[in-house]
Amino acid sequence: NAGVMQNPRHLVRRRGQEARLRCSPMKGHSHVYWYRQLPEEGLKFMVYLQKENIIDESGMPKERFSAEFPKEGPSILRIQQVVRGDSAAYFCASRDQGTSGNTIYFGEGSWLTVV
Amino acid sequence: QQQVKQSPQSLIVQKGGISIINCAYENTAFDYFPWYQQFPGKGPALLIAIRPDVSEKKEGRFTISFNKSAKQFSLHIMDSQPGDSATYFCAASYGGATNKLIFGTGTLLAVQP
């Protein structure tokens, strides 16, 4: 029973390039979250998606960042024109539909380094 | 209102001792309080969680104590082991449309042999 799968695990990009992070939720899960963890800091909520819908993007920077969760395929977090401050670990998490408090399962993360 | 404050930032405990990590919140709408454990280079993993209708929950060596009136909750690790050395995050969420977790800033626990 595969968990939340993220790839790539590590990604190096030069300033100005695009970073594309992928997340496949746990089997049967239709809710996906993206969190960012800066070095020595906690996890900050970025966006919450259901299939084909962005439900809450209150934590997403207004520019350069976008997310999608298409009907088929993984969820994608896209960062355009990366800057050094984007260097962080990006975690995807998923849960199944249902009442509040359902366990949210995290992936192993994608570590982005901008040089 | 959306913050979860966690302390201490770091903690050193001797093997066999008790590790205690505290969290406080403001938003009384929060109704779910999990603790996550994270090892270096790994994702957070759910350790134990509690709802505000109970004051304590125990799972093995891990116990959550919850004080609704004080809006505080804590994680106790009994008989701490070197393998418990990790970063621990408290979190809180409420239903609404998202169930998103609001995390504390984390506590780096080192258990010395």
Compute the average pLDDT of chain B: 94
Q: Note the total helix count of chain A.
A: 0
Structural class of chain B: mainly beta
Mean pLDDT of chain A: 92
Our estimate of the beta-strand percent of chain A is over 45%
Query: What is the subunit organization of this protein?
Result: heterodimer
- Overall morphology of chain B: globular
Low-confidence stretches of chain A: none
Number of strands of chain B: 11
What is the helical fraction of chain B, as a range of percent?
under 10%
Rg estimate of chain A, integer Å:
13 Å
Derived structural class of chain A: mainly beta
Characteristics:
heterodimer, A: 115 residues, mainly beta, seven-stranded mixed β-sheet, four-stranded antiparallel β-sheet, globular, B: mainly beta, five-stranded antiparallel β-sheet, 11 strands
Structure explained in plain terms:
The complex is a heterodimer of chains A (115) and B (113). Chain A is mainly beta and 115 residues long. Chain A is built from no helices and eleven strands. In chain A, strands 2, 4, 5, 6, 9, 10 and 11 form a seven-stranded mixed β-sheet that branches. In chain A, strands 1-3-8-7 form a four-stranded antiparallel β-sheet, with no helix packed on it. Chain A is globular and about 40 Å long. The N and C termini of chain A lie far apart (36 Å). The model of chain A has no long low-confidence stretch (mean pLDDT 92). Chain B is mainly β. In chain B, 0% of the residues lie in helices and 52% in strands. Chain B contains no helices and eleven strands. Chain B has strands at residues 4-7, 10-14, 19-25, 33-38, 45-50, 56-59, 62-67, 72-77, 86-92, 102-103, 107-112. In chain B, the strands form two sheets. In chain B, strands 2, 4, 5, 9, 10 and 11 form a six-stranded mixed β-sheet that branches. In chain B, strands 1-3-8-7-6 form a five-stranded antiparallel β-sheet, with no helix packed on it. In chain B, a hairpin with a 4-residue loop joins strand 7 and strand 8 (72-77). The interface between A and B is medium-sized, with 25 and 28 residues.
